Amino acid sequence: MTLPDSGRAFVFGDQIDTDLLAPGHLMKLDPDALAAHCLEAIDPTFASTVRPGDFVVAGLNFGLGSSREQAAVSLKRLGVRAVIARSFARIFWRNAINLGLPAVTLPEADQIAAGDLLSLDLGAGRLTNQTPGRTYAFAPFPDHLTAMMRDGGLIAHLKRSAASQTGAAA
User: Fold this and answer.
1) Are strands 126-129 and 103-105 parallel, antiparallel or unpaired?
2) What are residue 87's phi and psi, to 5 degrees?
3) Any residues with CB less than 8 A from the CB of 123 and at least 6 apart, and which?
4) What is d(CA 89, CA 66) in angstroms, rounded to the nearest whole number?
5) What is the full DSSP assignment across 106-140?
6) Alpha-carbon gap, residue 169 to 118, rounded angstroms
């Protein structure tokens, strides 16, 4: 899926746990059906209004709770370009990166308002909030993680790497 160059900010607070992203009582649903319930306990319209290329912006400790990767899968299935937060629970951050969903730590995330238009440059470590005209710097992702996310996540990246090595050896 090719995402637009910029997307809207959907803003949430601190301590957004994995049960809010992928409710435990619905874990038997297929990934798309589960994604339809993402964040509904906080914003019942989120899954129906978020569009490919939009951003989730949050406060401290985003993704705490269980290690279920379905939390990141739900956001990715909905087309969320990236999650921008003041801090992340470590397991959510790793799951998101492995699934090709950028999780950007930005101390100034609380300066972003709902509906602001954002654009992201992972390689340069830059988030631009086009609405007030502000640019924020963050530690750029290492090249290997940027490549992994560009390829769609860890599994897709490994398949691509294996295919290129096989092609080079042939």
Assistant:
1) unpaired
2) -160, 160
3) 140, 141, 143, 146
4) 10
5) -GGGGGPPTT-EEEEETTTTEEEETTTTEEEE-PP
6) 42
CA–CA distance, 28 with 14 (Å, rounded to integer): 27
Q: Locate 5 and state its tokens.
A: 């160059």
Residue with the two structure tokens 């238009």: 117
3-state secondary structure of 151: coil
- In this prediction, residue 170 carries a pLDDT of 45
21, amino acid identity:
L
| Domains of the chain with CATH codes | 7-141 (3.20.19.10)
Amino acid at 152: G
- Vertex 41: Cα angle to 35 and 46 (nearest 5): 50
What average pLDDT does this structure show over 15-23?
A: 96
pTM for this model (two decimals): 0.92
* Type of residue at 150: R
Of 161, 136, 56, the C-alpha closest to 102 is: 56
> For the residues 100-122, what does the mean pLDDT come to?
96
Q: How many CB atoms lie within 10 A of CB 48?
A: 10
**Tokens encoding 16:** 């957004």
